[in-house]
Predict the structure.
Amino acid sequence: MLAESLALSAALFAIGVVGVLTRRNAIIVFMCVELMLNAVNLSFVALSKLYGATGQVFVIFVMTVAAAEAAVGLAIIIAIFRHKQTVNLQNINLLRG
Amino acid sequence: MSNQFYPLFYSFHFYLFGLMALASSLMFVTRKSPVAAAMWLVATMFALAALYIMLDAQFVGVMQVLVYAGAIMVVFLFVVMLLNLGSPADLNDMRGKWGRLLAGFVGLALVAELMALTKSPLDLRLVLPAATDVPPTGGVIASIAAPMFKEYLLAFELTSVLLLAAIMGAVVLAKKTDAR
């Protein structure tokens, strides 16, 4: 089942990339990033069946980083929403020259 | 769970949960409402948790349900409802026709690249290793805990600093400031 798992992982990662590129809602873009992290976790778990449990240790580290990223990212989104009253990425253009 | 006793039963459920993950992630990226999208992402994560358990990673499967589906997605839904993003003006967030075409092209190119690399005649071909299954030694959690608290102890301790920094950063960023 290794080849199927890696193919599913690639497909989920590509769906996440397409979501990041097509959506303008900052929260949905963040959720697409979480989907990409999940795809990577799936290939870690599938390969850990061959190489021992070290891959699962990395999955737990990835989950920790994802939780930290979600907390900080959503706090940033709340701060931006207070400032601009929107989470649409097209209206968040402070860095545009 | 192993595939040596009921191979047909195992592969049927493996493909079932794989298709569920794929279908709900496709629904997730195409929903307009953030709440519906979050619900489909939760469905994707449950299907992935089932796949983890079928791949002999029971602890990771449980953590997937508890941490991802249970905690991280609740934070997302909390922010969606806190910011009250349900109004129709906010819902139309798809990029234009060219943006969607470009994104679809990039996604197809990513998948095609990975599939082509497995069949490439060059030296950089992706080869799936022909190793045999490593039998878990000393139980489900002990086999994860041993490398985590021996080889990766420093990384484990540094994660606690990372989490502390993230907590403080989230509180500082989301705090109401009356300075202006």
Q: What stands out?
A: The two ends of chain B are 59 Å apart (CA to CA). Residues 136 and 142 of chain B are 9 Å apart (CA to CA). Helices of chain B lie at 7-30, 34-54, 58-83, 88-91, 97-119, 142-149, 153-174. Residues 6-130 of chain B form a domain with the Four Helix Bundle (Hemerythrin (Met), subunit A) fold (CATH 1.20.120.1200).
